[in-house]
Amino acid sequence: MQLISHSFQDGQAIPGEFAFGVSDAAAHVALSSNRNPHLAWSDIPEGTQSFVLICHDPDVPSQGDDVNQEGREVPAELPRIDFFHWLLLDIPASITRIEAGSHSNGVTPRGKPGPLAADGLRHGINDYTAWFADDAQMNGEYYGYDGPCPPWNDRLVHRYIFTVYALATPTLAVDGPLTGASVRAALAAAPVLGQASLTGLYSLNPSIPLD
Question: Please, where are the H alpha helices in the chain?
Fold first, then answer.
């Protein structure tokens, strides 16, 4: 399988329009247009009945003590954990393209609704749900795509890995809430015929160039 995007090149920076946050000289971070990027996949395995799409950031700090704190930095060598930005399930085998902005076009305080999406697709719960849990203005269940917004003082450039999985079943059976962990567990037990990935880079630290 092959996965490409017209929104960014593999291994290159993701434009700010596809991010949750962009750099701001006064406040460090400002909300962005938060559009989902264009994606298209090809070389589909024979017998494919549906696809699952996951976007995750494997570079999120495992400890939040220094995150977004004035006069401090998140060290690059700090152990990192996964943060899920997009879980899209039950994509019919006839669909091999997602247009830019078709699933997200702007930040929705308290999250976009789900899990049901157009054309019988299902959106999972992304990890902004936990991130905003204690924020009175933003807390809620965040379904669908919400883009990059890494700590503005992180010394590490974050990777955003988009992966499409081809399944031999029309739907993915998931136990419990549609979180990143539960979807991954379901994929581990599912008849996956093939997969392909694409990685974009993003940082809100103005001292770290991406090019």
Answer: 128-131, 180-189
